[in-house]
Design a protein that fits this description.
CATH class: Alpha Beta
CATH topology: Rossmann fold
Number of helices: 9
Order of helices and strands: HEHEHEHEHEHEHHHE
Distance between the termini: 38 Å
Number of domains: 1
Largest sheet: 7 strands, parallel
CATH superfamily: NAD(P)-binding Rossmann-like Domain
Bound molecules: NADP nicotinamide-adenine-dinucleotide phosphate
Shape: globular
Strand content: 5-15%
CATH architecture: 3-Layer(aba) Sandwich
Helix content: 40-55%
Radius of gyration: 21 Å
C-alpha cells in the first residue's frame, strides 16, 4: 500500500533528498556549469536593445530594470525628465545599461521622434515594451471626445505607431518582441472602465493583429495583464485601505500586486524562452481574473 503523500516511504532511491550521491550544485562563485548556460541560453538578453515606454515609474520601471539586469540595453520613454533621470540612474546603479528619451505619447510626431532617438543611441530595438498608460475615467456619459481621444492616443495609438516603426524591422531581422501592458478591463467591465477599458481591449486586439502580422518572422507579441498594483497611476484607489483590502481579497494569492511581480514575466516574454508564445494576454494578477 502506498503511504500518505507526505511519507517518503522506506525506499529512497537515487536522487532522493537524503541520497549522499545527490549533486549539491555548484559552489557559490564557481565557473558556470551546464545548468547556468542552459538558463542563459533561455533567458539571457545580452546584446538586445529594448525601448520601454512608461519606464520611469511603477510597473514599466520594474519591467525596464528586469530587462536591463538580464543583459539588454534599455531606453526609457516618458514625459517627466526628473523621474526618467532617476529611473535610468537606478538601473545603472544596479548594474544595467539604461538611457532615457522624453516624449508625450499623446503626440504621434513626438513618439516617432523618440523612436528615432532610441535608434540613434542604441540601434534598432529587439524588444518594445508599451507600459505607459493614461487612466482618467470620467463617467462614460460625461466623457468628452477630447478626453476619449487623449486616452486612445496614449494607450492604443502610441503602441500602434511604435509597433509599426519597429515591428517590420524586427521581422526583417527574424526576431523581436512586443510586450504591451493591458488591464483587467481589456476583458471585463468594472470600476467605471469607460474609455480606459475600451483602449485596453483595443490594445489586446492590437497585440493579436501585430502577432498575425509579424510572428511568422520571429516577432512574438503578447500583453501582460496586471491586477491591482499601487502606483502613481492608481494613487486614488491606493489611498483607500478598504478598497485595497477588497481588491486583495478578490485575488487567490491574497494580496495586491507589486511592480516586482512583473520582472520574471517580462524577462520570459522578452527572451528565447517564449519563442512559441504569441498573441496572448498573460494575466499577472494573483488569480484576480479567475475568481
Ligand atoms: N497599477 C495598476 O493597478 C495597473 C492595473 C492594470 C493596468 N495597468 C497598466 O500598467 C501600465 C503602467 O502603469 P503604472 O500603474 O505602473 O503607472 P505609473 O507608475 O503611473 O507609470 C506610468 C508611466 O507612464 C508614463 N506616461 C504616462 N502618460 C504618458 C504620456 N502621455 N507620454 C509618455 N509617457 C507617459 C509615466 O511617466 P510621465 O507621467 O512622466 O509621462 C510613467 O512612466 C499602464 O499601461 C496601466 O494602464 C496598471
Amino acid at each position: 500500500m502506498p503511504g500518505p503523500l507526505s511519507d517518503p516511504g522506506p525506499d529512497r532511491g537515487p536522487g532522493s533528498l537524503d541520497d549522499p550521491g545527490l549533486d549539491p550544485g555548484p559552489e557559490p562563485g564557481a565557473e558556470p556549469g551546464p545548468r547556468a548556460s542552459f538558463l542563459d541560453s533561455l533567458f539571457s538578453l545580452d546584446g538586445r536593445v529594448a525601448l520601454v515606454t512608461g519606464g520611469s515609474s511603477g510597473i514599466g520601471h520594474a519591467m525596464a530594470r528586469a530587462l536591463a539586469l538580464a543583459g539588454a540595453r534599455v531606453m526609457l520613454l516618458a514625459r517627466g525628465e526628473e523621474a526618467l533621470g532617476r529611473a535610468a540612474a537606478a538601473i545603472r546603479a544596479a548594474g544595467g545599461a539604461a538611457a532615457w528619451v522624453r516624449a508625450d505619447l499623446a503626440d504621434p510626431s513626438a513618439t516617432r521622434r523618440a523612436a528615432e532617438e532610441t535608434v540613434a543611441a542604441y540601434g534598432e530595438p529587439d524588444i518594445l515594451v508599451n507600459a505607459a498608460g493614461a487612466n482618467p475615467r470620467p463617467p462614460l456619459g460625461d466623457q468628452t471626445l477630447e478626453q476619449w481621444g487623449d486616452v486612445m492616443a496614449v494607450n492604443l495609438t502610441a503602441p500602434f505607431v511604435l509597433g509599426q516603426r519597429f515591428g517590420p524591422a524586427m521581422a526583417r531581422r527574424g526576431w523581436g518582441r512586443i510586450i504591451s501592458v493591458a488591464s483587467q478591463q481589456a476583458v471585463r467591465a468594472f470600476g467605471n472602465s469607460g474609455g480606459y477599458g475600451a483602449s485596453k481591449a483595443g490594445l489586446a486586439g492590437l497585440t493579436r493583429s501585430q502577432s498575425e502580422a509579424w510572428a511568422g518572422h520571429g516577432v512574438c507579441c503578447n500583453t501582460v495583464t496586471p491586477g491591482f498594483v499601487a502606483t502613481p497611476l492608481t494613487a486614488t484607489v491606493a489611498s483607500d485601505p478598504v478598497l485595497c483590502a477588497a481588491l486583495a481579497a478578490r485575488t487567490m494569492i491574497g494580496r495586491n500586486g507589486e511592480p516586482a511581480d512583473f520582472e520574471g514575466v517580462t524577462v520570459f516574454l522578452a527572451s528565447r524562452a517564449s519563442d512559441y508564445i504569441t498573441g496572448q494576454l498573460i494575466f499577472v494578477d494573483g488569480g484576480f481574473s479567475v475568481t
